[in-house]
Amino acid sequence: MSYWHIKLPQKFLARLAGRGRNLAHVEPTTLICPALAHGGGNLRINVVYSSHCFTVKFQAGKHRRKMMIWDRGMARAFDDERFEFSKLLPKIIERLPKAQVNQTHEVRNYVYVTDLKRTDGRQYLTFFRLERASSGAAHDLELFVESAYLAADSNRLRRPNAIRFKLLAHKVLTNRAIHFPRR
Fold this sequence. Notes:
Layout: H1 3-7, H2 10-18, E1 29-34, E2 42-49, E3 55-57, E4 68-71, E5 74-78, H3 80-86, H4 89-94, E6 100-103, E7 109-114, E8 124-132, E9 141-150, E10 162-164, H5 165-173
């Protein structure tokens, strides 16, 4: 059974299907990342996406109740733009092992900024959390994509505290502190 068939109301999924849409592209997947340890090998990272990748905050006068869901106690509404861009997420996540990411103001979260070469200059932001997997899990790390969306404007984001994703994965796996200069 699909991850989303467990997480979301069946009526919501049926309405999406009625619009010719599904969430197959944001099903959990495994990302393979080359390990930095002396022995080499690969890290297996379980990737799970949040509904925030294809929804926005629900606004009563703007959104239809039929396309509303609850996520972590917050009312959310399906969003066409976020949904269309969420189709890029699997390829974006695949590029993480070769990418540099940035720490967010929430410290435990990171953002990967993708320049989509849009004419309006807006960037696509992918916010995620990376944690060690529980003991006995079939993978080494858990990557939870908290949200992903186009930046509100074309101003380049200030991106402090950059770190290579591979190094971040290694530090999380080995439970080592990640040190950045003071902001």
